[in-house]
Amino acid sequence: QVQLGESGGGLVQAGGSLVLSCAASTRTFSSYVMGWFRQAPGKEREFVAAISRSGGYTYYADSAKGRFTISRDNAKNTVALQLNNLEPEDTAVYYCAGRYGGFSNSGKLKYDYWGQGTQVTVSS
Q1: Which of 76, 95, 90, 94 is closest to 17 using CA atoms?
Q2: Dist. CA 20–CA 70, nearest whole Å
């Protein structure tokens, strides 16, 4: 069982930045593809970004390209999501997730473990 815990959410003005972090409680963190998802009020959860086990490959949703950056530190068992140039439409609960499987350029992969989420609110 892997436990994931997100942090770093908050209230920010449009155009601002945040860094979300996710800590994993596993000794085999480097075995997991990691992803970030978000769910806005009244909407379904959507894929944001994913990173391969080594960190050498990343994949982004169109809404995240050029503004968000996913990264990981396998020595610290953490994955981060840098959010830049935030827009009110980015307001959502952001979740990190872990997948014990391969990486591919897809936002539709199945993830095995999920965190509780961290709220990001962007004011206009």
Answers
A1: 90
A2: 9
